[in-house]
Amino acid sequence: MEIKGLHHVSAITANAKNNYHFYTEILGMRLVKKSVNQDDTSMYHLFYADEVGNPGTDLTFFEIPRAGHTYEGNNSISITSLRVPSDDALNYWIKRFEELDVEHEGISKQFGRSAIHFKDPEGQRLALVSDEKNQGVAGGVPWDKSPVPQDKGIIGLGPSKLTVPSPGPTIQILTEVLGFTHVGDYPAFIDGQPDIQVYSTGQGGTGAEVHLEHRTDLPQEKPGRGSVHHVAFRVDNYDELAEWKDKIKQLRIPNSGLVDRYYFKSLYFREPNGILFELATDGPGFTTDEDVEHLGESVALPPFLEDKRAEIEAKLQPLNTKLY
User: Fold this and answer.
1) Which tens digit of pLDDT belongs to each residue from 9-18?
2) Is the pTM of this model over 0.70?
3) The sheet that has 276-284: what strands, in order across it?
4) Is 6-315 assigned to CATH 3.20.20.70?
């Protein structure tokens, strides 16, 4: 039972069309699945990733058209990182962001890696992180039809940063329950605040870290458009996920039980600071119901929703994701 790294991050958008434009045409990610939120089928669930949606490359969005403004604060997943192949790739992205008017903070250092912090049009807090020195979990392969050159493209998820008012209980979950290891620290972005702690799992490296920020000066975050709903961690297979369920149950941690998301199986629980964690299996993957060449072009529904397709599609605003 070993967490292999980041599986996916799920966030909130108020506008699927604009979200699709930014993440595919600006960031060059591939829409590998256009589906719906299985818990509320009136909203889109969009999955952006590498060429085939390999585990650890996946950034997803729930569309909530009436989602309000996010008031940033504690008890949150406050930065989602996206990996790029090299330091040189970051120079490309600086020029691209300048040309396309993307708000960014230039190149800085984060735990010995070069990074660019930036935001999407809804204020989603993001960072591009260089994989040049990575010796841990390998990244994916950018889609060859992306508007971004493959050697500069996004290859997967980097560290997720959690911001909490009380780090001790979160650390206990990360280390004693999930098996993460403390591997270092780096200075906080705000003067006078504690160093940011880095926790690693599996093979380690850019795709297998959680960065924990302790903030004493913030209210609790009020989520909305541009906020993160949950972070998911990789579990090898269903049998191992069932073992995790038993372990978490034995520890009396409230949880969802095993949930079938069709493209993967999941287990959800909240750590003590209220952040939603998911454990998700690596398979069966996004090519289960669509050909690789046509991923994300049509509304994909798991078999248990297929008989409601007409009803579901009638509630969705049309979103053209076909390339040709």
Assistant:
1) 999 999 999 9
2) yes
3) 30-37, 40-49, 58-63, 6-13, 228-235, 276-284, 264-270, 259-260
4) no
